[in-house]
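Troubleshooting: if your tokenizer reports a length mismatch, compare your output against this known-good record of 91 residues.
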Amino acid sequence: MVPPIFGREYQGYWTSGQRRTANCGSEPFVWKNYPGVDLPVGYTNWAVDRPDCVDSNEMCIQLTTPRYLDERWDDANCRWPLCAMCELDLM
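Known-good structure output:
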């Protein structure tokens, strides 16, 4: 079931941020830029009271929109249908 926040007024974007393990609420987030490579998250931009690990399954970091949490980070269920942000190495 798709959460009620998904509608015309809301879209978010996936980042490569995920919890290090499947232990919601206690593990730090890491950047998973490449398979098998976890990089520490040095900068954060969490929305107020986030991450909150709702329903014990919010394992990924999404960048929210101005209409939902003011363009800050939120932990979310990785199965939600969001667009992904991509990083391009120009060097």
